[in-house]
Specification:
Layout lengths: L9 H14 L1 H34 L3 H52 L3 H6 L2 H43 L1 H10 L1 H37 L1 H6 L3 H36 L1 H16 L5 H13 L1 H25 L20 E10 L3 E11 L4 E5 L6 H8 L7 E6 L2 E2 L5 H7 E4 L10 H6 L7 H10 L25 H15 L3 E5 L7 H14 L4 E5 L3 H5 L3 E6 L2 E6 L1 H7 L2 H9 L3
Parallel strand pairs: 3-8, 3-9, 6-7, 7-8
Antiparallel strand pairs: 1-2, 1-4, 4-5, 9-10
Helix pairs in contact: 1-12, 2-3, 2-5, 2-11, 3-5, 5-6, 5-7, 5-11, 5-12, 6-10, 7-9, 7-12, 10-11, 16-17, 20-21
């Protein structure tokens, strides 16, 4: 069963954003200063325009014309200065945003790689993929473009409102009261936007998960004729995405018309009230004109803010999903205790998947250091689930699984990787050179050690690569087929050199001859280490020191191959069936 990753709350988002600012206090202070200067320069024009009106009203002589010309030149200079300062402020803000976006991407990758194995295993692939792509891109766009422009616009708006209030408090109060409609519409939108965009992000994650699962299981879908079922599931997911998208669109369809209509109210209100004040001598004509132009000038910053507010709300929801990874490590704190030895012990272990009931029932098992244990049984008996518990990927529902007296699941990730490695049929080949694909397991390994690890699993195909260890792997370069990719995965195990290796059908994709050869090579390479092999091929069990037989979630038999065959129980029946007796 899968569980979506958590979402950060507003407090954590603010803390994270503040942290980005404190990292670069100097550049951010420069952005503030430039914005303030640009906003101040923008106030000069309307004020001088009011002065021109009063000057012309008082006199129309040659001296007046010269004064008007000089004031007009000052207005032009102020506009040019405001443009230069605003553009440079945007440039500094965009650079700050790019660096902050890079830090967020790196932090996301670091947190993803540090996630506990159990969390990764139970996280929907689509959820993590969408957070690492669409959500991170949305945050980067906000930091790079939306946030700087909104910040500049907000600074200009504050200065303009302050100028109107200083020019004439009555006119300023009138203009601000007319902006109430904008504030009401914006408050209505913000109250609903976060929930709407979080729901849209979750729906997108669900759709990505459905598409990923269908594509990766295409052969199974075709073999079992599940095409229509998967189409129905995809259609349902698409419908949920569409509904979530339409909901956020409906929010914008209310906000933008209300705001557009509200833009005219402050200017109209100031002209009406200003005319009355002018008639009663409470304001001169220049003040009324300047106040009207200030409020008309306010439309530009407000337009910028409201045009980007949708992007910022979407980005905040994305930021909450990206920062949600920071909450995951708080769920459980790894123990700093060191295992006393390499002995693995499971005592009265049970485990249940959500809504499915127990799949393991009271398992008692002890694996000695250096022992080779084979776990066999029919499909669905609980073999892989037991392997995941022994590797610390999952925690038992009751009982405990420990190594050297320390719960396996409580080991720190780096310590756990040195202690136990679980190898399944799933593997990954990174788009990089063969050398770097191997160095993941041991960064300090030499080329000789890398080749020795490949030779140990009989990966002689390296001799046919065009550039040997420097050959690029991946879709666009040399692509390894499934058996070769699995041998690469097994070579990583040898390089990692853990105390215990759990092989869960690790050679299932190899043909029987190659699998047998690889298993023998692994047995030789892992000599002296604990090996727990979960396999359907009973020849693997024949070579083990002991065999654990799983049936319907119970450990039904435990012993050597000869003893179990002689006992005539379930294992003996499997062995006879394997040999066609």
């Amino acid at each position: 069963m899968t569980t979506p990753l958590p979402v950060a709350d507003t407090t954590r988002i603010r803390r994270a954003a503040y942290g980005e600012v404190t990292v670069e206090k100097g550049p951010f202070a420069g952005v503030l200063a430039l914005n303030a200067l640009a906003a101040a320069a923008g106030l000069v024009g309307p004020w001088l325009l009011g002065t021109i009106v009063n000057t012309v009203k008082a006199s129309t002589g040659p001296a007046t014309i010269g004064t008007v010309d000089r004031l007009a030149l000052v207005i032009v200079a102020a506009i040019l200065l405001q443009t230069v300062l605003s553009r440079y402020a945007l440039l500094l803000a965009a650079r700050f945003g790019e660096r902050a976006a890079a830090r967020i991407r790196e932090r996301f990758l670091t947190r993803t790689l540090a996630l506990p194995p159990a969390v990764v295993e139970h996280t929907p692939t689509g959820d993590l993929a969408v957070r690492g792509t669409s959500d991170v891109d949305a945050v980067a766009t906000a930091l790079r473009a939306a946030a700087p422009e909104v910040f500049v616009a907000a600074t200009q708006a504050v200065f303009i409102i302050g100028a109107v209030l200083v020019l004439n408090p009555l006119l300023g109060a009138c203009g601000l009261s007319c902006l109430a409609v904008v504030l009401i519409a914006l408050r209505w939108y913000l109250h609903r936007a976060r929930t709407g965009y979080l729901a849209e992000g979750a729906a997108n994650s669900e759709l990505a998960e459905v598409l990923t699962a269908t594509a990766s299981g295409a052969r199974t879908v075709e073999a079992l004729r599940l095409q229509q079922q998967r189409l129905d599931v995809a259609e349902a997911a698409i419908s949920r995405v569409r509904a979530a998208r339409l909901h956020t669109l409906s929010l914008r369809s209310v906000l933008f018309p209300a705001v557009d209509l509200s833009y005219t109210f402050p200017v109209v209100g100031v002209l009406l009230v200003g005319g009355t004040l002018y008639e009663h001598g409470a304001a001169d004509l220049g003040e009324v004109v300047a106040a009207a132009f200030y409020l008309r000038q306010l439309i530009g910053p407000l337009d910028t803010i409201l045009l980007w507010v949708e992007q910022l709300q979407s980005s905040m929801a994305s930021y909450a999903r990206v920062e949600g990874l920071a909450i995951v490590p708080e769920v459980g704190t790894p123990t700093p205790a060191e295992p006393a030895d390499d002995r693995i012990e499971a005592v009265r272990v049970t485990y249940a998947y959500r809504h499915l009931g127990d799949v393991l029932h009271g398992i008692d098992l002890e694996v000695q250091p250096g022992e080779r244990l084979a776990v066999v049984g029919p499909s669905g008996a609980g073999k892989s689930t037991l392997g995941r518990l022994l590797a610390g990927v999952d925690r038992p529902g009751s009982g405990h699984v420990s190594v050297g007296g320390v719960p396996v699941a409580d080991l720190p990730p780096d310590r756990m990787r040195r202690q136990i490695v679980l190898i399944t049929q799933e593997h990954h080949v990174f788009r990089d050179t063969l050398r770097n694909n191997l160095l993941i397991a041991r960064p300090s390994a030499t080329d000789l050690q890398l080749r020795a690890a490949l030779a140990a699993v009989h990966a002689d195909w390296i001799d046919g690569l065009p550039h040997g260890l420097d050959t690029d792997l991946g879709d666009a370069a040399h692509r390894l087929d499934e058996p070769h990719a699995q041998q690469l995965s097994l070579a990583r195990v040898i390089l990692a050199d853990p105390h215990t290796v759990i092989l869960d059908e690790a050679t299932a994709l190899l043909d029987p001859a190659a699998a047998r050869l690889t298993e023998r090579a692994l047995a030789a390479a892992l000599q002296g280490r604990t090996v727990i092999a979960i396999a359907h091929r009973l020849q693997t069990a024949h070579d083990a020191d002991r065999i654990a037989v799983m049936e319907a979630g119970f450990l039904s038999e435990l012993g050597t191959h000869d003893a179990l065959v002689e006992a005539g129980g379930g294992y003996a029946a499997l062995w006879r069936s394997w040999h066609g007796d």
